[in-house]
């Protein structure tokens, strides 16, 4: 059967409408939204990702804080060493809660001072210049040293570390986040010639 030509008057109006609006012949679709089940699935997935991601982010932030604070202490050690060499005299770094006197109790987290230890007694006395004062660490952190470095670190003009009695001074300080469960920590190691370094460790507890 031959389709009628648009030249025929009776079919002319229909041809014009089809050519002007070809979309009129396409089926119309109504917009489709999300079903309740799809919305619930998305919410469950987001909740799972949140519970996994939040602890991970907290761990990253704790690690950054440990690295930052250990580097601050390390910087003070390097300063004390360089000042001892420059001044050709003993320079000591000691725990200090008030930024003036050396403390013999508590940890290094209370703060510390670097001073010119002119009389070589590892205590800050009147007239001795304070080179640097360090603020207390965040309340959640603990910084403790073993026996040789529990209260002070003292550098002599050669750049080596030395106890007030004359023996060489070497030791380890541990920086950790207070927790009965322990976790990631930083250890600041001081060797006999006065060179400090930091390494990452894990502790079973930090009190």
Q: Secondary-structure blueprint of this entry?
A:
Blueprint lengths: L8 H12 L15 H52 L3 E5 L16 E5 L13 E5 L6 E5 L6 E4 L15 E7 L5 E8 L5 E8 L4
Antiparallel strand pairs: 1-2, 1-5, 2-3, 4-6, 6-7, 7-8
Keywords:
207 residues; alpha+beta; minor pseudopilin epsh fold; four-stranded antiparallel beta sheet; 23% strand; elongated
Structure characterization notes:
By secondary structure, this protein is of the alpha+beta class. It has a single domain (56-203), classed as minor pseudopilin epsh fold. The protein has helices at residues 9-20, 36-87; strands at 91-95, 112-116, 130-134, 141-145, 152-155, 171-177, 183-190, 196-203. The strands form 2 sheets. Strands 3-2-1-5 form a 4-stranded antiparallel beta sheet, with helices on one face. It is elongated, with a radius of gyration of 36 Å.
Quick recap of the structure?
The chain contains two helices and eight strands, in the order H-H-E-E-E-E-E-E-E-E. It is α+β, with helices and mostly antiparallel strands.
CATH superfamily: minor pseudopilin epsh domain
Average pLDDT taken over every residue: 86
* Strand percentage: 15-25%
Bulk shape: elongated
Q: Looking at CATH, which topology would you report? A: minor pseudopilin epsh fold
Total number of strands? 8
Structural class by sheet pairing and helices: alpha+beta
Query: H/E order of the elements?
Result: HHEEEEEEEE
């Amino acid at each position: 059967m031959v389709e009628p030509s648009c030249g025929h008057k009776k079919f002319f109006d229909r041809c014009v409408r089809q050519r002007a609006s070809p979309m009129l012949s396409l089926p119309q679709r109504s917009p489709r939204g999300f079903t309740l089940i799809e919305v619930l699935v998305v919410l469950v997935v987001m909740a799972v990702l949140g519970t996994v991601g939040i602890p991970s982010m907290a761990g990253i932030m704790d690690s950054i804080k440990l690295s930052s604070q250990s580097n601050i202490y390390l910087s003070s050690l390097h300063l004390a060493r360089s000042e001892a060499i420059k001044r050709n005299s003993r320079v000591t770094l000691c725990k200090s809660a008030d930024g003036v006197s050396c403390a013999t109790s508590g940890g290094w987290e209370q703060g510390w001072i670097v001073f010119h230890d002119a009389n070589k007694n590892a205590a800050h006395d009147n007239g001795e210049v304070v080179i640097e004062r360090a603020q207390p660490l965040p309340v959640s952190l603990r910084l403790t040293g073993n026996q040789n470095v529990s209260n002070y670190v003292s550098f002599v003009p050669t750049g080596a570390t030395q106890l007030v009695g004359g023996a060489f001074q070497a030791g380890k300080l541990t920086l950790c986040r207070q927790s009965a469960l322990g976790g990631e920590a930083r250890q600041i190691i001081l060797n006999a010639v006065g060179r400090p370094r930091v390494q990452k460790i894990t502790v079973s507890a930090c009190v």
